[in-house]
Design a protein that fits this description.
single chain; two-stranded antiparallel ribbon; about 45% strand
Length: about 160
C-alpha cells in the first residue's frame, strides 16, 4: 500500500513504506474531429492547460478560444494531447462550459470511450433545455467561442 503524505509541499510526515508520486504542471491541449493529435485539428488560441497528478489519478484543467473558420460538418470533437495516457476505461470523465462571450452558453462533458489518448466531447445543453448530441462541433464550439473544462481520469502508470 502506498504511503500518505500529510503535509503539502514536503516529504515529511509520510505514513507507510512508500510515498505517493505527486506532480503538477502545464500541458497544451489539442482539439479536433479525430482522436489523433495533429489530424483534423481545430485552431484554439490562448489555450491554457494545467494538471495535477497524485499517484495514478490525474486532474486536467483547460481553457481556450476557438480561432478558425474551418467547417467541421461531421464527427465528434476530441480533446487530445493529454499529459498522461489513460487506463483505457470507458467512463464519464469531465465537464466543460462553452461560452459565446455573450448570451447563453452550453453545459457539456467529455468522456473516454475506451481510448487511452483522447476524450470525446459528447453532449451539451443550454441552461434551459435537456441534453442533446453536439455533433457537428461547429454548432456548439463555433469560431470565437470559449471552452472551459476539467477532466479527471486514472493514468495507465
Amino acid at each position: 500500500m502506498s504511503g500518505i503524505i500529510n503535509s503539502v509541499g514536503s516529504r515529511s510526515g509520510v505514513i507507510g513504506t512508500t510515498e505517493i508520486d505527486n506532480e503538477e504542471g502545464t500541458w497544451t491541449p489539442s482539439f479536433g474531429t479525430s482522436g489523433t493529435h495533429g489530424t483534423n485539428t481545430m485552431t484554439v488560441n490562448s489555450i491554457v492547460g494545467q494538471y495535477v497528478k497524485v499517484g495514478r489519478l490525474v486532474r486536467l484543467n483547460f481553457q481556450g478560444q476557438r480561432s478558425d473558420s474551418g467547417t467541421w460538418s461531421s464527427g465528434d470533437l476530441y480533446l487530445r494531447n493529454m499529459p498522461f495516457t489513460s487506463n483505457n476505461v470507458a467512463n464519464l470523465a469531465g465537464h466543460c462550459w462553452l461560452d459565446p462571450g455573450s448570451g447563453d452558453g452550453y453545459k457539456c462533458f467529455f468522456y473516454s470511450g475506451g481510448n487511452s489518448t483522447s476524450f470525446t466531447f459528447s453532449h451539451g445543453s443550454t441552461p434551459s433545455t435537456a441534453s442533446r448530441y453536439v455533433s457537428p462541433p461547429d454548432t456548439y464550439f463555433a469560431n470565437n467561442w470559449y471552452l472551459y473544462g476539467s477532466i479527471t481520469y486514472t493514468a495507465l502508470t
